[in-house]
Amino acid sequence: MTATQDSSLEFYLSRTSKPSCGKAAPVQKGLIPSRLKGIADISEEGLGFGVPIAQYWRDFVFPGTSEVSCEGLVPEGESWKTFDLNMIERHQGSVKNRVQMFSWVYQRAYNRYYKSYLGQKLARLTKPRNPKAAAGSRIKEPTFLRVASRGKVTTRYQISSCRIDLQTRVSGLSEEGLQHVYIANELGGTVFDHFYDDSGTRLHGETIGGWKHVHAERAAFVAPSLDLAFVVEIPDGVECYVGREIIAPDIHWSGVVLQLDDITEEVAYTVRMTTARGAKVVSL
Fold first, then answer.
1. In this structure, what CATH number is given to the domain that contains residue 170?
2. What is the pLDDT of residues 84-130, one digit of tens each?
3. How many structural domains is the chain composed of?
4. What is the reported pTM?
5. Structure confidence by residue, pLDDT tens digits, 213-234
6. How does 103-119 read in b/e, with b if 16+ C-beta sit within 10 Å?
7. Exposed e or buried b for every residue in 166-188, given b needs 16+ CB within 10 A?
């Protein structure tokens, strides 16, 4: 079997996210592959393909609204989605249910800071010593707040069978305070639990962990139970990170993130949905 023979695999775009757990997902998703008529069966909580996230000096800014070339099932050929980066994340405190603490990094997307040695040390130093104070400052789920737009980013998708050529133009973003732009490519972490790249890296399950810098031309996540893989071809000169996180019941993603430092150019790359036999990619 080849990827082109998987007639059940289709691709979808939407102005609103449809999370598998039934909760409203505030962050816009990109192109979503599905075997169940648009349901997030293999993407789970992952953002799909081609989603921009901008890192400014103080905030990570996420796309909260969007426009699409077509709603729902995407035919072969060209389609696009324009993401409006107009949302930031805060953590909620239990006291008066008001915004109490800025999280610095969205726990599901860019948590390298908290998983670093420095981040863990700071967390220990700032932990309340009084048990009552600790209980009162317990952090609830993150909350997203709509803010003034930092600009719009368009990702174009050229679909041919199970090959997607993506082109993202980030020049529409405000440059004031901008540090990096990330392009997220994520599917479900429950099923896509094996990672390979063409430099020889092999990781499985929890060994994948938080964001890791990879030096490769191609990076792949494999779902052995589905005999399916998605392969991201990494453009020359672009920094790449891979990661996986499972936090029941709502967070399950595996992803490849491209880091852009120059917003004057477009970034073009390819994602392939391909066959895997067990835990091995047929063609990397």
1. 2.70.98
2. 999 987 654 444 444 443 333 344 443 443 344 444 444 455 454 55
3. 1
4. 0.80
5. 899 999 999 999 999 999 999 9
6. bbbbbbbbbeebeeeee
7. bbbbbebbeeeebeebbbbbbbb
